[in-house]
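Researcher: Good morning. I'm working through a list of sequences from a screen, and I'd like to move beyond sequence-only analysis. For each chain I'm collecting a predicted structure so we can compare shapes side by side. This is the next one on the list. No need for commentary yet; just the structure.
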Amino acid sequence: MPKVPYKSSEQPRDDEDYEIVSFEDFCDKSPGSKTDLLTLNDNINYRICYEGEKPVKFVDDDGGTSSRDLEQLETSLNGSKASFKERLSNFAPFGKASKTTRGSPFSGVIPKARAESDSPREHRYQRFSSRRNICQRVCDGLPCYGSGLILVIIVCALCAGAWWAVCGAVGGAWGEEHYRRLWERAHPDNVKKPPTPITYEKILPEFRYHDHNNLSTKNKLNATELSKKKPDLYKKAYTERPPEVMSDICAQIEDNMRFDCFPQDGANEKDCVQRGCCWLPAKTQGAPYCYYPPQYDTYRFANMTETKHGATAYYQRMRPSGYPADFEIARMDFKYLSDDVLQIKIYDAENKRFEPPYPEIPMVPGPISNLKYRVQIESATVGFKVIRNSDNVTLINTQDVGGLILSDKFLQLSAILPSSQIYGLGERQSRFKLDINWKTYAMFNYDTAPTENTNLYGTHPFYLNLEPSGNSHGMLLLNSYAMDVILQPAPAITYRTTGGVLNLFVFAGPAPAAVAAQYTALVGRPAMPPYWALGFHLCKYDYGSLNVTRDVWQKNRDAGIPFDVQWNDLDYMNNSNDFTYDKVKYAGLPEFVDELHKDGMHYVVLIDPGVSAGEAPGDYPPFDRGVELDIFIKNATKQPFIGKTWNKISTAYPDFTHPSATAYWVEMMTSLHKEVPFDGAWIDMNEPSNMLSGPLHGSCAPEDLPYKPHTSGADGLRSKTICMEAQHYAGSHRDWHNLYSLTEAVATDFALTEIRGKRPFIISRSTFVGSGRYAGHWSGDVFSEWHDMAMSIPEILSFSLFGIPMMGADICGFNGDTTVELCKRWMQLGAFYPFSRNHNSDRSIPQDPVSLGPEVVEASKQALRTRYRLLPYYYTLFWRAHVAGETVARPLFFETPDNPVTHDIDAQFLIGPYLMISPILEQGARTTRAYFPGAWYNLQDGTMLAHDQWNKLDENQTVAVRGGGVIPLQEPPAGAVSTARARSAPLQLLAAPAARRAAGQLYWDHGDTLRASRGRGEHGARALGAAAAARRAGRPESCGPAEPPAGAVSTARARSAPLQLLAAPAARRAAGQLYWDHGDTLRASRGRGEHGARALGAAAAARRAGRPESCGPAEPPAGAVSTARARSAPLQLLAAPAARRAAGQLYWDHGDTLRASRGRGEHGARALGAAAAARRAGRPESCGPAEPPAGAVSTARARSAPLQLLAAPAARRAAGQLYWDHGDTLRASRGRGEHGARALGAAAAARRAGRPESCGPAEPPAGAVSTARARSAPLQLLAAPAARRAAGQLYWDHGDTLRASRGRGEHGARALGAAAAARRAGRPESCGPAEPPAGAVSTARARSAPLQLLAAPAARRAAGQLYWDHGDTLRASRGRGEHGARALGAAAAARRAGRPESCGPAEPPAGAVSTARARSAPLQLLAAPAARRAAGQLYWDHGDTLSE
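Model: Good morning. Structure tokens for this chain:
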């Protein structure tokens, strides 16, 4: 990078009033410049005099001191051969003063202001006066002065030198006042003055690093160069402040700004001072006695480079940290991952260290268009600032805050935050808003019952900081080692971890919901749960037998408890061994699971990670197979590590980092699934837990940590788990402990997907960052106490921040006996958890609703029926979490972040934006007090509850709907309720008014396909969020079937009735859209929100007789009910208009295909909402053949007959197109002439004579009927002309391939419109109808028969296409798909059996014959295959129009 020419300052100054210059400017001094600089000697004398009263100490790495000659120091400054490393290590005359280096007198002076015209490369510091030096002036004056004057000058100089020497000998008093003024200017903050609170904004002036580019240009230092230095060159120099200076500095630091310098046990003044820290008793409880002074220089800036995607800075170690193995060279990488997310990685530049491979973080930054943040780095300080651009709020400030410690087993970073409103940092049991009064939050996955101030099952070092303005940001430390996070009332945060690197991710927000979405975009969006997983789950540890399990299941169903999933805990296993079941106590378990499935219910089993290691060889395949594959965690002797869990003798732990571990896990789970066809997996004990603190035999090695985190357990990190030195395939257990559950969840997710071919459902006790991508979570072994019930809400809200929305607590508690009152209130709360399960221990009384009596039964039924009514809303929220990172359960301030009242509330919570749960949480209470930001209505009766105020609620008012919200509902049927039965009920849309406008969303699919719809396919769903939704009479609208109002009817009255959407499924798939607005505004809604409106032409319900069409509610079929039967019933969507506007969407597909429609693949799905004919009784609907009308025939009359399309399948695939218009207009449709054809996909039924046309069914073949045989029959297409124009499309393929034709798969169909005319033997050919050959019939024989194309003309115009190939080649014709069609024009005659084939002529009609009559006869296309391939073309139009 070129250097900027030096521009000297010409401003005159007094001798004593020096201007300030940096050392880099000194080095940059132009050789020809005529300037006076403060000499290096002045700097050295100044430093000796006022930076300390004793010679400079140079402190080695080991803490010793060494003396060096000042001449050598000066030489190192001026010598050209001294390396940058040497200069940087030995002396920094013009660097900013820090705590251990004597800075220059200029380091603290504010740099000169920069004019707008100045170059960004212009030097920041002003030069000294431009007077020439003494030698130049003497030389210039020699010609003008006599020798006498010269002699006087020499004598004066000698006198001055003698005076200087004498003054120096007596202690330097001559320059004391002069240098004191310089020192005070350079260190204004260290000047003794009345104690005032120190703000770091004063101590650390903000410099943008790009103003110091000359540093990074000249200092070409990197880790490679430093690694070549000899060990003795790593000795770092730092200074010790005089005691009186330290005393003044330390006294000014307020208690809340103290950062602990001695966090280990046994802090004392001697050791504290030896570290260069302050020691002063604190007035505030919790504040440390030993704390860092400002500018504590463990590291010093060395070099920096910048790119458009970030920057890299190097720092050199200055003073020893007090912890072994400091990083000699620290590297900070700043990477702009997106406009909203910044990565800051601080690590050892010379040695590779462990970093978590999960979750998978993007390595390549995304596109950067409008950064919401900026980073400030100052070369004279250690650390950085992150500032939000929109409001200039400093989000993270680490510049000389606390002490940056980087060593092998202890890393520490402190930062000042903009607000004390901090949330997250789990897993823990506490209030949602974190206590910042000197609280330490330990993080290390640990098996213990939840209690306050205890590290629990998961590790999530992520926080959200809510600012007073309502803006927020978040930060994640991605580190898998045991750690402490300390909050103090500055407000500030300190991370202390025992290994790895400091890998920080800052999320700029600014909305709280945006922070959560940015976080999951980085670590992985939450998994989409199957629909049935949103139902109610029931479990108990140790039912004891299958008979008890069945009895509990049956009694709760008979009592009408909505119920979807039965679980079994450990007791179903044989000897508590994974992948087995007890064939005595649980005999008949496979048959019971089959019974559950027949009733539309599901079954989940527990699977612990540890497998029994105490069985005889050959008796227990899971252990034998694991030894064979060598997939167990190893001890120090390379043998499987043996601990003890629930297995009778001993336990071995699979190592999920081993390349063969996933295959092993799939094999074991498959073996269990073949016996017991479970639907989901409950992975427990995966911290991993151990009933011993170490191995069954022997002991763990000493942990040897210089800092011990405040984790639970008396035995250190090994408490109730595996030794830290145990070996995984990919590293030590110390590296992988917190990641163990995540690796198991990844393997389990893969196994369930492989085994079931459907959406996996996993609940995991232990979690880590990114676990939500694979599993949900429950809060563990909570107690049956009122406090634990109340604390379940903050934990659910925290896990929403962590990207794990499928979260709940054991309803009624796990440990201890519940009571009727407690369980009733907990069921009323837990019914609305995202994951709703009642579960307790083997030592507790049964607590399923029926076991606790009628009061709990009635409360549970009411709460759970409300939940099941809301399941379409819950499912939509989970889909939004899956595709957009939104939260399901969320705190109130997520919707109203600028309302300070909501910031502390965690006894209420939201489900999505429009549903609030305000439970009764106190024993003996009959009411609760709740706050309502905005307008809220009671879900049960629609009454207004409150508007921006607190209100007292009874137990029938705890579920509220927000004004302005639209919530999709499904009323559960009477009797036993499950999601399978509830899904067959009509969908309803409930709208609550707010300024006569409301909005909502609905997502709907099969419920357990592997993938929910993604990509571009959700345009309609996205548009739904912008749809205004209906309201009636200014209050929430309820719905039965849409009927015109009684009495006088008008559109004004009819529009107030609820809207319904009727969908008749075809191939178990349907789709449609609805647009609704005021009805007579000047402009319809425009922009991107009208995707749904544009598709409205394909709406499932057509108008009849000029008015909207409605229908009665969809009822499940009579008799036995299953989802297969219920899906054949019409779907309805009820919308209640608000401001005469409503919108909605519906997604519907086959229901169990491996993949839902994706990308551009939804073209068919979109058209499906307007499908021309629905399936009846599970088969396609068709109609009889098109015949010319009776009596006199003309093209005019014949065109009015229905059109039919006959397709003879080849390789079970066929395609074609039809073009139809008026028939004699001057111009045929041009441009992208398929517009009509595309519209055909949306045509529900063709009109004939101004009304819909119907026809008889297509008959299946005689004899035994199957789809295979029926598919071989000719296909027909019935079109009823409207305004003498109709259009349509047909898609036909093999029928059961994994993938339907994608992309622009209609290439062949489009080419048909360009077919000119088919020729055979130089003339048009026709023939009789194609019949299958006599005798035994197969597709091979039938394909040899001539093909026919039947066209019934309308307006004397018809068009079509045919694709034909070998039938079983690996690839169909590709490219633009028209290869066959193009070849068709060149085919002179088709061959059959190697020779041209002929056929009889097309017969003219009986009686008088004319072209007009003959044209009305059906057209036929005869194809004689050669090599089983043929091609041809046909052109047909009015016959006498002016233009072709």
